[in-house]
Each structure stands twice: as structure tokens, then as C-alpha cells.
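Interim report to the steering committee. The following record documents the input for phytol kinase (304 residues).
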Amino acid sequence: MWRGVAAHSPLLLRALPPPPPPTLLLVPTTNTTTTTTSLAPLLRASSPAPPRLRRVAAAAAAMHDGAAAALVMGGAYSLVLAFDKLSERHIVEQSLSRKIVHVLSGILFMSSWPFFSSSAAARYFAAIVPLLNCIRLLTHGLRLFTNEALIKSVTREGKPEELLRGPLYYVIVLLFCVLVFWRDSPVGVVSLSMMSGGDGFADIVGRRYGAIKLPYNRKKSWVGSISMFLSGFVFSIGMLFYFSCFGYICLDWERAIWKVALVSFAATLVESLPISDVLDDNISVPLASMLTAFLVFGSSPHVV
């Protein structure tokens, strides 16, 4: 009866409320298969590389570093040989040739560090270069072997035993800095720059133009000390900028300039003291530089 009334009574149809729209009921479900599949790329990305892949990468880095060490060693021998030939032909004086080798050896060796790989063993491959030079100086200084060209190129008086002093100390400092500081420490970079560039130019300029001697050391001159401060400062800033371009050192330049100037002053002061007969400049200058640089730069390898 009511069905008939509803069908024939439009008023009643209009009075009734419209039916509610259909709704979807969302029930949370757990799909372990979908979750595992979606997290698989993340798990693969965070998991360590397989042992075989790590071995291949280590072997590739070792081959890269070995080739870099061989090239640097060849360059070091070529540098000494080239200036030895120049001094033999009287194109460059022997004393000047020796000091140019002194300057370039440390600076060029440092410049080669970014070309080694990023592996933890890279510094040890780089250390092979000064280590072999150290062995070479020891064997020739002890007269186990004879090489007149080597003796003339790196000694003052041409005596083999001189190889066991200044030249040997020089390569020992190179070896120490590459093993202890490496390329991400401003302490090592500044110390080698002062020993190579600063002390080297102090001798070159001081011998030629150092007529006015220091009052407390008649073997050193004002011009030589000033040139050491300036050249050591310039080489240090230049090498710090060089390594910062590769991202090894992050510099606050305004602060770094004053810190480098302080290190240069300390190294220059120590170099000017009358202690060369007791302590060689290739020991006193880098030692003073390391101590001062460690105090002003701190132990942080990245932020200056």
C-alpha cells in the first residue's frame, strides 16, 4: 500500500530526504611485500659495498698512487739533473743552482699531493719519494756509492759527508710532514713553505745583496731576513690557496693572513739567530714554523 502511494504521490516523494551518497571506507592494511619492495633501494644504497668491489677499488687506488709516486720521483731526479747540467755549463752558478733546487724541491713536492688518490694509503705512497731520497743521501754520504753530480748539486763544498747534514734534514722534514700533516693541514703546508721558499730565498738574496749584517749575527743580513719573511709569507699563502682550491683546507682569509704573517715572523727570527753551527736551518726553521702554526691554527685540519 505505501509503495503505491509513494509511486503516485509526488508530494510525498519531495518530502522524503534524498539518500546519502555512497562512501568508501578506507581500512589501513599492512602489505609487507609492498613495504619491503619500496625500501629495497634505500637498503641497497646504505649497505656497504661487496668485498670484491672494495678490493677492486683499493687495487685501482694503489695503482693510481704508485704511478703518481713514480712520476713525482722522476720529476725530482730530473730537477736535480737539469740544474746540475746548467751549473756544469756555467749557465747558473753552483751556489745559486743548489738554492733553486732547495726552493723548488719542497714546493713542487707539495704541489703533487692533490694528484694522489683519496685513499687512506695515499700519503704513504707520496712518502716513498722523500724516503728513497733519504736512502740515496745516506748511501752516498757514507761513501757506499759515489755520484759526483749529486754531491755538487746539493752541497756547499763538494764533500760527501755534507749530504748527511742539511740535505738529509731537508728530506726528513719532507717525510715527516707528508706522514704527519699531509694535504689537509695548514701546519704542514706553511712549515714546508717556510723551509723551502722562505729559507731558500733568504740565502739567495742575502748572499748577493746582504751588505748590512744583523747586529747579533754577522753571518746574516737585514736584506736576507726581510726576503725570508716576505717570500715565506707569499709561498705559504700561495700554497694554502692552492690546497683550498682542491677543497682540502677551508680558509677564513682575513684571519689566515695574520696567522701566516705571525708564523713567517717566528721562522725568520729563529733563522736569524746565531745557532746555525749547532742547529741546521733545515731543522730550526720548520720546527719553529710547526710550533707557531700549531699554536695559531690549532689542531683542526679543515677550518682556519
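The beta strands are 213-214, 217-221. The committee is asked to note this result when reviewing the revised timeline.
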